Amino acid sequence: MPAPLILTFVSTLAFAIQLLIFAYLYSSHRVRFFQYLLLAWGAYTLSKGLRLVDGLVLDVHHPSFATDVATVAAVGFTLAAAFAHRWDYRLRGRDVLIGAGVAVLLALASSGDAGQRIVGGSLGVVQIAAGVLFWPARGRRIGFRGERLLAGLLTLWGVHRIATQFVNTDPGSAGYMAVHAVFIALYFLSTFAVIIMVLERSRSESERLHARLREAERLGTAGELAAGMAHEIRNPLAAIVNATALLTDEAGLTPDERSATLTALRTEARRLNRILSDFLHLARPQEVRRAPGDIREVVEHVSALIRDDRSRAPRVDVRVAVDPAVPRFAFDRDQVIQVLWNVALNGVEAMNGRGRLSLEVARQNGDVALAISDTGSGISPENLPRVFEPFYSGKPNGSGLGLTIAERIVGAHGGRIEIDSRPGRGTRVTLLFPLEAA
Question: What's this model's pTM, rounded to 2 decimal places?
């Protein structure tokens, strides 16, 4: 088999493989401009295949009428893809008929050497125009990787088409081999640029979709918070209203009953204030202000507060174990104290003020693990997934926002919270903080 036919066979096979790659990508990335590029690459593959038939079956050295039509169609679809990318253009039936007529006329016009040069130069100009249209428009906010690369390659491809009209392209000549080598290189690089561009567009669309989902989740959470807030406020408000109604009836209350009613009024008012304070802290969290610090000082500070709080922890044995290998790292001291204090108090209340509370600090891979363990009643498996839900609480008078706020603060540090609990065997809450904050 002559060298030109071998080159045509190899390029046809390579084009077919790239066309299959395009078809596979299009099944999951159905963008209009990519659809037209898929048709263009299919026309290029058909053109190469027909060129092979011209040499093997028809034994002609010049492209046949069908080959020329396929080549013109490929350039036309490339221009349509550029229009679709730039202005969201859509091919209509009338456009297809006009394009088919132009392709036939150009194929007929390329019968002689002069006609081939004119048609080839015209296709080169069209390809350059397609490259210019793929170049990112000025002032457009959203751009995609691969646009400039594809625009530049299509422009070079058009220049190559024009330049080949002035080069000796007799089969087997050096000019013939050089022209085809440059053509194949431009084709392969253009394919690479299209793949980059399509995948980048898909990634950008995915990010926008995720942003919309996050916004929907945020709105949904706001609705849940509002509903939960209304439910939590209703109970203390009802108690306050009942207490004020009793206080207005001075003759019907003994001094002891009046004192008990005032105490209940103050208790419910404090509860209402705590719910509102927690809600405001959740809705408007403070900015994390990291500074290098020693987590040992935080743990010792919180453990001392618990030991000194005899009203809440009269018979709690507080134990602290800090691995000396834990280095200093950046964290917001006040916020971490708040998280540790809230979690530790949850453990104290779960033990009804008596038991053992352990605070342990150790390294865990690239994180600092701060574990708070208690010997309380534990959490049932069905309730464990709900502990971070706003307004969910296992305590009768709890606001249900403590762990929600703690999870948000730890998340703002780039960390996470893990909970291991079994009924009757206590609970272990592990706060994981990254040593290298993002």
Answer: 0.52
